[in-house]
Amino acid sequence: MAARVLLAGIVVLLAAVSYYPFRWDPPRIVRNQVVRTAEGSLRFGEMNAARTPGTPAWLGQARTSGSVQIRLAVNPRSLQQDASMMMLASNYWDTDFAIVQDHSSLQVWLRRPGSDIGGNPPFTVNGTLQARRWASVEVLVHGDSLRVQVNGQTRLAARIPADSPRVWTAGQIALGDEIRGGGPWQGTIRNAQVSTRGYVVNYIHPGALSIPGHFLYFPDHVEPFPPADWEDWLTFALNLLLFVPVGFLIVWARRPPMRPIPAALLAAGLSALLAAGKILFYQRHIAVADVVMQTAGALLGALLAWRWARHRAPGTRTL
C-alpha cells in the first residue's frame, strides 16, 4: 500500500514538472488578428499569422553573396513583451535570422558558424524601443560584418564569420510571431523590406504574405534531436534518474512483485502519456530522447527492485 501511495505521489510530481506553469493552450482554430490599417501598415494582436507560403526567392542569392539588408519600421504596443517582430525560420527552433523586441531592447538572432541552430547567442542593442513610438531599424549583413542602425544611428557594429548567410536553410518569413510557436508580438509594422543582389521585397505590401482570416493554432511541440543546447543534454541524465524510483515502485506496488520488463513497459507508457500531454500546454515541448531515457531509468529501477525481491524471498522465480 505504501509503495502505491508513494508511486502516485511521484506521478503527480512528474506531471507538475512536465506541465508547469499550467497554461492551457491546446491546438485550435483561431481568428487571425493581423489587420491592415487604412495607411497600409499591418497591426498585430494576440493571434498572428502573416507568413510567406514558402522559402523566399532571394534566399539563394543571399547565401551566394553573403549579403542581405533588412529594414523595419515598427511601433510596439508596449514594452512588456519579448517576441519576434520579423524572422526567417523553418520551425520553432531553426532560425536563420530574427529581429526581436525584448522589452525596450532590440535583439538580432543570426545563424552563423559558431552559433546554435536558432542563432544564439543574439546581438543586443539596449534601450532602443519605446512603447507607441515608431522606430526605424536596419540590419545589414555583409561579408564578415554586422551593422545595426536604429533611427539612422549605428547602434551596433560587430565582426561575424564571413558569409554567414551560407549556413541559412530553407524557411519562411514571418511577421509579428514565430513560424510555429513562441509568443506573439503586438504592435504595428509599416515597413519590412529585405534587399539582396537582384531582389528588393517589402513584406508589408499586399500579396507578399499569406494572411488568412482563421488558422490552425498548433505550435511546434517536438524538440529536435540531437539537442541544440548543452543544458538539454544534462536533462537526459536527470530524466534517467527521475524514473529509477518509478520503475522500483511499480515492481513493489503489486504483490507478488511485477517483473522488470512489464514494469519498464508500464513506465514507458506513463512517460509517453506525460509527453503527449505537453501538446495541450503553452511552450511545453516533447523530447523523444527524454522518453527513451525515462524508460531506461525505469528499467534500471525495476531490475533493482526485482533483485531485492529475490534476495528477500530466495524462492522467487527468476526473470
Could you name the key traits of this structure?
elongated; 15 strands; single chain; alpha+beta; eight-stranded antiparallel beta sheet; 5 helices; 319 residues
TL;DR of this structure?
The protein has 319 residues and is α+β, with helices and mostly antiparallel strands.
Overview of this structure, please?
By secondary structure, this protein is an alpha+beta fold. The protein is built from five helices and 15 strands. The protein has helices spanning 2-19, 59-65, 230-252, 260-277, 288-312, and strands spanning 28-31, 35-36, 42-44, 67-76, 82-89, 95-102, 105-110, 123-125, 135-142, 145-150, 153-159, 172-175, 187-196, 199-202, 214-217. The strands form three sheets. Strands 2, 3, 4, 9, 10, 11, 13 and 14 form an eight-stranded antiparallel sheet that branches. A five-stranded antiparallel sheet has the order 8-7-6-5-12, with no helix packed on it. Helix 3 packs across helix 4 and helix 3 (230-252) runs parallel beside helix 5 (288-312). It is elongated. It starts with a helix and ends in a 7-residue tail after the last helix. The mean pLDDT is 93.
